[in-house]
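Quick one: structure for this chain?
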Amino acid sequence: MSKRIVIMGECMVELFQLVENVYHQAFAGDVFNTAVYLKRCCEQPVDVQFFTAVGTDLISDKLVRAVEREKIDTSLIFRTKTARPGLYMINTDAFGERSFVYWRDTSAAKQVLQLAAAHHAYEQLAGADMFFFSGITLAILSEQDREDLFALVSRLKAAGSQIIFDPNYRPALWPNADAAKTAFVRAYQLADVAMPGLDDHKVLFDAESTDQVVAQLAELGVGEIIVKNGKEGISGRYQGEEFTALAHPVKKVVDTTAAGDSFNGGYLAARLGGIAPQYAVKFAARLAGFVVEHTGAIVAKEHFNGFWAKNRPSQFQK
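Got it. Here's what it folds into:
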């Protein structure tokens, strides 16, 4: 019987420049990127459901079709007549580091919990093997909806769902750092698996090293901890045992968009395949290294298939 994974958050219209003043349009967003790479990288059947909201316009129709092309279940994508997907533009420098310009103030994804409640859809979430959400998922919600999400996650956890959280801190989405820190602590206290980057904890929790982040999260009760630190590698802790792993060497960084998201997807795919955390991070690092060698968040399938022909999670278990 295949595992069922619910991934909640926002998918946006993505624009990135191909040549001067010519932009390519795609769809991406932190949790959606994770959903795509998780689905693509599972070696066994898995039912990935994307939990979000979109509009009733043509671009929303295209977004839903893009989700379907990735063989991701769209039954938890709700429609609203009063909003449309957000949009962002990627700018990259000569070293592949990216910056973003966003248009998301009226993003339909902000209404997801209200729409789910109106459609009596919460029972559809029951029985999920995993529930994944991020700090961006929390940030785009109203205060009341954020409370409702924490209540929902608590119910799912009590019913046996494994809760996975990546803080993915974006200061512009929060009224202040304290609000983000408070929300993240609550999310960590519910999480079975936490997948932060060191940079998030430097800003919010005064951490100076990945080891400090591991200690902070262990104190909050997280059982499986993976801390990403770019080219410096990964630190982790599982069942009381700590470990480290190197980042995968990259020939040329083209675009760091979705580096952490693809890592998350690869790691969770490996874990779903029964790979231990200290080996799952090696596959995840290899995948992230591949993704940053390409433009945009979601690597085209024809390029990804070349990677997949040579790299499977099961090959990294030794």
